[in-house]
């Protein structure tokens, strides 16, 4: 792929994402519309979104790196976090939905009536999100450098 076509492809993806976001913003009237699509998303689409999150650059590159560094025993890691996802879906998703909360800190405060627990949950969500985001940015940089031919 040439540099010009790579840059064009990246620009098209960004413009498309912005247009989809602008269109979605026009459809959002309430908090429920924005956060959970008025709870009208079918299980198939919801499963697709969870799968997209699960099959990320961190997963692909991280597992490949672990297997390279530590051997085939690391293939059990995806089995473990798949089991964790199932536990999350069974034990957390249904009560979270029934509570009407939009975030885990909201749910923790509603369930335990403690602002300290809410703050702790908020800090943990941000910390875990940050740790997950770093390999995503690293992978995005590698992909963009490959597509655009930018120097290291």
TrEMBL record:
Glycoprotein keyword on record: no
Topology within the bilayer: Multi-pass membrane protein
InterPro entries: Na/Glc_symporter_sf, Na/solute_symporter, Sodium:Solute_Symporter
Primary localization: membrane
A Pfam family: SSF
GO biological process, one term: plasma membrane acetate transport
Gene Ontology molecular function, alphabetical: acetate transmembrane transporter activity; symporter activity
Gene Ontology CC, one term: plasma membrane
Cellular localisation: Cell membrane
PROSITE patterns for this protein: NA_SOLUT_SYMP_3
Coiled coil start-end: none
Regions crossing the membrane: 6-25, 45-69, 75-96, 117-134
Keyword terms: Cell membrane, Membrane, Symport, Transmembrane, Transmembrane helix, Transport
Family in the record: Belongs to the sodium:solute symporter (SSF) (TC 2.A.21) family.
PANTHER family recorded: CATION_ACETATE SYMPORTER ACTP (PTHR48086:SF6), SODIUM/PROLINE SYMPORTER-RELATED (PTHR48086)
Protein name listed in UniProt: Cation acetate symporter
Organism: Spongiactinospora gelatinilytica
